Amino acid sequence: MGSWPASRSHNVPLHLLPFIPSSNYARLYSSKATPAQMNNIGSEMGKSSMNDTSDSTPSQAHKLTHLTQSGDAHMVSISSKQPTKRTAVAVCSVHFSNKVAIPLIRDNRAKKGDVLGVARVAGIMAAKRTSDLIPLCHPIAITHVNIDLQISHEDASDTAPSSPAPSTSIPWSGTGQGDGYKWPSSTAESVPCKAFGSVEVTATVSCDGKTGVEMEALTAASIAALTIYDMCKAVDKGMRVEGLRVVRKEGGKSGTWVEGVHNSEK
């Protein structure tokens, strides 16, 4: 009785207190269901629980084909696949930060020469060398490569200043190489790159083979864009390469895939 207040302990007879067993007691409730119906409900609940458990097992999860069961990287065997015609399209953009580069590209007056012509050849060469650059890619007998480069010049008169952002010189204040300089931020700054035009890169790669050419298309588009950057960096050091991605693939077991289109809409 030590747990009850002294003022109340003599007012509550012990035989009126409810009996609560220490363990293994049943909770009673009323239901309109018959015993047979209750058994069916319990059986269905048990099956549902088992199904939920089986769905979450690791064996049902998606797997990376380039990894073995022990987690080691390897080149996937494609010997059992049937050759089909395969095509992939990849895109990206080179955006400029001033008005100087686009006129030079259009008039073929860049110091290093024909920017678009060299970038086009670079993209074609890159597609053929993809397996030398990406470790687990198969060498593929490519049947066609097309690099399309389109200049998109947007008027910046209303949305951007008439001249690019001024550059500043930072005095040396460190003891080692680069110590006195602020590292650039990984987040995009408020530089109106898109206001000064861009070159839109589209790479289309095809083959008759056992595996897709998505990596070849991505490599071709990225190298074409980097070539444009290299040939224009003397007049624009604020260029940005953006939006590299596959937008279409055809062939193979998965068939045709288009960016932004669901299977039910094809």
From TrEMBL:
<feature type="compositionally biased region" description="Low complexity">
    <location>
        <begin position="158"/>
        <end position="169"/>
    </location>
</feature>
<feature type="region of interest" description="Disordered">
    <location>
        <begin position="40"/>
        <end position="60"/>
    </location>
</feature>
<dbReference type="InterPro" id="IPR047594">
    <property type="entry name" value="MoaC_bact/euk"/>
</dbReference>
<dbReference type="InterPro" id="IPR050105">
    <property type="entry name" value="MoCo_biosynth_MoaA/MoaC"/>
</dbReference>
<comment type="pathway">
    <text>Cofactor biosynthesis; molybdopterin biosynthesis.</text>
</comment>
<feature type="domain" description="Molybdopterin cofactor biosynthesis C (MoaC)">
    <location>
        <begin position="197"/>
        <end position="252"/>
    </location>
</feature>
<dbReference type="Pfam" id="PF01967">
    <property type="entry name" value="MoaC"/>
</dbReference>
<keyword id="KW-0456">Lyase</keyword>
<dbReference type="GO" id="GO:0061799">
    <property type="term" value="F:cyclic pyranopterin monophosphate synthase activity"/>
</dbReference>
<feature type="region of interest" description="Disordered">
    <location>
        <begin position="154"/>
        <end position="184"/>
    </location>
</feature>
<dbReference type="GO" id="GO:0061798">
    <property type="term" value="F:GTP 3',8'-cyclase activity"/>
</dbReference>
<keyword id="KW-0501">Molybdenum cofactor biosynthesis</keyword>
<dbReference type="GO" id="GO:0006777">
    <property type="term" value="P:Mo-molybdopterin cofactor biosynthetic process"/>
</dbReference>
<dbReference type="InterPro" id="IPR002820">
    <property type="entry name" value="Mopterin_CF_biosynth-C_dom"/>
</dbReference>
<protein>
    <recommendedName>
        <fullName>cyclic pyranopterin monophosphate synthase</fullName>
        <ecNumber>4.6.1.17</ecNumber>
    </recommendedName>
</protein>
<dbReference type="InterPro" id="IPR036522">
    <property type="entry name" value="MoaC_sf"/>
</dbReference>
<feature type="domain" description="Molybdopterin cofactor biosynthesis C (MoaC)">
    <location>
        <begin position="75"/>
        <end position="154"/>
    </location>
</feature>
